[in-house]
TrEMBL record:
Homotetramer. Forms an RuvA(8)-RuvB(12)-Holliday junction (HJ) complex. HJ DNA is sandwiched between 2 RuvA tetramers; dsDNA enters through RuvA and exits via RuvB. An RuvB hexamer assembles on each DNA strand where it exits the tetramer. Each RuvB hexamer is contacted by two RuvA subunits (via domain III) on 2 adjacent RuvB subunits; this complex drives branch migration. In the full resolvosome a probable DNA-RuvA(4)-RuvB(12)-RuvC(2) complex forms which resolves the HJ. Has three domains with a flexible linker between the domains II and III and assumes an 'L' shape. Domain III is highly mobile and contacts RuvB. It comes from the Bacteria. It comes from Deinococcus maricopensis (strain DSM 21211 / LMG 22137 / NRRL B-23946 / LB-34). GO terms for molecular function: ATP binding; four-way junction DNA binding; four-way junction helicase activity. The lineage of its organism: Bacteria, Thermotogati, Deinococcota, Deinococci, Deinococcales. The RuvA-RuvB-RuvC complex processes Holliday junction (HJ) DNA during genetic recombination and DNA repair, while the RuvA-RuvB complex plays an important role in the rescue of blocked DNA replication forks via replication fork reversal (RFR). RuvA specifically binds to HJ cruciform DNA, conferring on it an open structure. The RuvB hexamer acts as an ATP-dependent pump, pulling dsDNA into and through the RuvAB complex. HJ branch migration allows RuvC to scan DNA until it finds its consensus sequence, where it cleaves and resolves the cruciform DNA. GO terms for cellular component: cytoplasm; Holliday junction helicase complex; Holliday junction resolvase complex. Its main location: cytoplasm. It is found in: Cytoplasm. This is Holliday junction branch migration complex subunit RuvA. Belongs to the RuvA family. Pfam families: HHH_5, RuvA_C, RuvA_N.
Amino acid sequence: MPGVIAYLTGTVRDVRDTSAVIVAGGVGYEVLCPAPTLAKLRVNDTAELHTRMVVREDAWTLYGFQDQDSIRLFDLLTSVTGVGPKLGLALLSAMPPHVIAGGILGSDSKLLASVSGVGKKTAERLVLELQNKVPEHLAAASGRTTAPVVNSTVGQDAVEALLALGFREAQVRAVISELLSADPNATADQLIRKSLGRLR
């Protein structure tokens, strides 16, 4: 489609609950982003986002992602019947790409259905239609795992605290596992605070 915005570089003007405003060439673009991307954006910093424009009769909506894996998975997820951009964004907000890939490859529809808005039938359809389409490097990264194990005491404490707040276990474990991989020395309080920014 002519005029499609595939990549956007500009200054972050505002960061909201589900979107950010990026100023490029004197124009402010509102870009809907998954929680991990939003968490890395800072007002007045320069943002570089891979984008997808979804055009409908009543709106042109721009979706932005900080890495190629997320946008590739977004494209795959939204290619499935009944999975629109909003649901694709919800999945990528709840879990990192390799965990979603692991759920698909491991036929773990329960993991996918743990995300708010994803029903049992939709989760089963994702598994059925995407099992042979997951990129090889994501398949390798996933190790075909479905529910990350949190071994540390600090991680378990954070998991239990978040479960007490009503979040779903599969989502919580996926986020805590990713945060601990990035910072093995994080305290339980730090893990909880960072997790709350990702769990929607």
